[in-house]
Structure formats: structure tokens, C-alpha cells
Amino acid sequence: MPGVPLTATDLSKRYGTADALRLDDLTIEAGERVGLVGNNGAGKTTFLRLALDLIEPTTGAVVLDGIRVGGPDLGWKHRVGAYLDAGFLVDFLRPQEYFRLVGGAYGMSAATTDARVERFRPFLGAALEGGRLIRDLSLGNAGKVGIVGALLPGTGLVVLDEPFANLDPGARIALERLLREDTGGATVLVSSHDLDHVVGVCTRVLVLADGQLVRDTPATPDTHAELRAFFEAGGGAMAA
Predict the structure, then answer these.
(1) What is the pLDDT of residue 235?
(2) Are 200 and 31 within 8 A, CB to CB?
(3) Whole-angstrom distance, CA of residue 38 vs CA of residue 56
(4) Does the predicted TM-score (pTM) go above 0.85?
(5) Over the stretch 153-185, which tens digit does the pLDDT of each residue have?
(6) Domains in the chain, start-ordered, CATH in brackets?
(7) Would you give the distance in Å from CA 67 to the centre of its chain?
(8) Selection from 183, 134, 196, 192 nearest residue 165 by Cα
(9) For labeling, which of 50, 125, 137, 223 is most exposed (least CB within 10 Å)?
């Protein structure tokens, strides 16, 4: 499936009197690979959870490929593959069983699912060895299973939160390649604290601070140095 566009208009999430996120107007074009960066509490995961209808917005809406997320039309769900944390896994299953569960949810046969998993076997590595349950895998290997579960259906949007965490250097490099070259043109939305990998993967970087978008920039050879200087200065508001 080719990439799909995502928009957020007048989007906010408030807890009590505190705004966790406030986005007036954001458009992510079909096929863009967008990185979200920011210090802890900046609003990155809040935005991802709003985009997946895991929490309800206080105001505004996210629209995916013309369909309002959280609205009566549930067609947007088959346009998204996502892995945010271990809560997305079913840890009493083996990885292959989990992949078949995910594939079935997207209308894929077991044979089709198994064939698609083979594309990711080099990345999965030891996660597929020994027939172990997901709960018995290392954090890194369990994370690989979740990431492949998000990529497996070939959706128009792939959403990942801190996908490079707990991966060894080889797996991080392999994941960069997968996200750049093997998503079938999907729109990719990645939140990460790892500036090297964000700039290495993404075509565009959004910087959040205190729940607000403070910078929206193409990823260029100069972006890493600019982001490093920003966070060395404290990670507050910066000129766009």
C-alpha cells in the first residue's frame, strides 16, 4: 500500500490544567518519513497515541487518508501498522504465532504472513530461533518482533515509538535500512531520542517542546548539528 497523508488540526490533549500537547495545524504528506524528537514530556508519545486512537483528544482531530481517527468510519485502522511498546505484544505467543495473529487481523492468510516474515528474517535473527515465547526473549529481540509486526501488513502508515531502544548496533543499522528502503513507500512516523538514527532515516524532523511544535525542518546534512545544539541549550523553544 502506498503512503497515506495524516493531518492534525486544533489538536490538544490536556490532563487537568496541564496541556500535554497543542498542535494547531500539522500535515504529514504521503510517503514522508517523519521523525519526532524532544525531551521527556515534550508530547511525542502523546501525539502518537492520539494518532492511533489510544487516547481521546481534548480538542481537534487527527485525519488519516481522509478518515477521522476515532470517528465512526474504522477504515483507517487497516491503513496503519504500529508498535509503541511491549503492551502491543502478546507475550505468551511465539513470534511466528504473533505474526500470524497480526496478519489475520489485516486479512492475510497464514501462508502469506509466513512468506512476508521471511523478508524480515535477517533483521529478526535470534528472535526466531529456538521456538521461544516472546516473554522469554531479550528486550531487544522482543522489540524486533514488535517492529516487524508493524511492518508486516504493508500499511500506508507505520508508527514506531523509540524503535532503536535496546537494539544492538547491527540491528540498529539494519532497522535504518528497513525504514528507508523496505516500507513500500509507506508514510513513516518515528519518535526517538537517538538523533543519529532519526536523521539517518527521516526526510523531515519535527521538534516538540512542552507539548508544542517548535521546529519543522527537512532532514539535511546540517540537521544533526542543529538538533545537538538545540538540546545542549536545554531543549526549549527555538526559532523555526
Answers:
(1) 72
(2) no
(3) 22
(4) yes
(5) 999 999 999 999 999 999 999 999 999 998 999
(6) 6-232 (3.40.50.300)
(7) 19
(8) 192
(9) 125
